[in-house]
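Can you give me the bound-state structure? Components:
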Amino acid sequence: AQSVTQLGSHVSVSEGALVLLRCNYSSSVPPYLFWYVQYPNQGLQLLLKYTSAATLVKGINGFEAEFKKSETSFHLTKPSAHMSDAAEYFCAVSLKGFQKLVFGTGTRLLVSP
Amino acid sequence: GAVVSQHPSRVICKSGTSVKIECRSLDFQATTMFWYRQFPKQSLMLMATSNEGSKATYEQGVEKDKFLINHASLTLSTLTVTSAHPEDSSFYICSAPHQVSDGYTFGSGTRLTVV
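Here's the bound-state model for the whole set.
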């Protein structure tokens, strides 16, 4: 069965600093990997996804992630944090064929002025 | 783009009553719908998978008689919380895979509060 681990339930950065949110996955077959952002009392918004094409994936709002098979990682980065980036971020994995998504425990990003 | 409309966004009900949550795919046919529950400050946990025209598949530990899922058409899936209790208070989110967009489309969620 596939799973994801997000290291760090909270990450704090200053506005303008690098954002790095970690995600490691476990899957017996090549996975599909996703990053979602959630604002309070709202649904999930897709930031980016990896579906076996380019390993460096660029998403919305300046975010990107790199699929590293050797490290079983799919870390999310953004060069310069903005106050509006403060939210909950979820890494998720699924198998090809769009089977169920399995979510990590989430990382709350805090951005200070 | 693919849109899943989820209603209601918020509902407060009395203990012992039932609540129905609807998810409609507006511009595509959703043969599959995933239903998730999210407790405060926690992750999304899959409750069940519904497929149009067949019985839903429930995850281990989810009471199928309490959480009734119906997927009678390619554009509508419903979750009914029967005999709701305060411990059922949660945020419920539906999601449909969308192969054209190579991803999943999520509803905006329903905040259920049982008093």
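A couple of observations. The two ends of chain A are 41 Å apart (CA to CA). Chain A touches chain B through 19 residues (CB under 8 Å).
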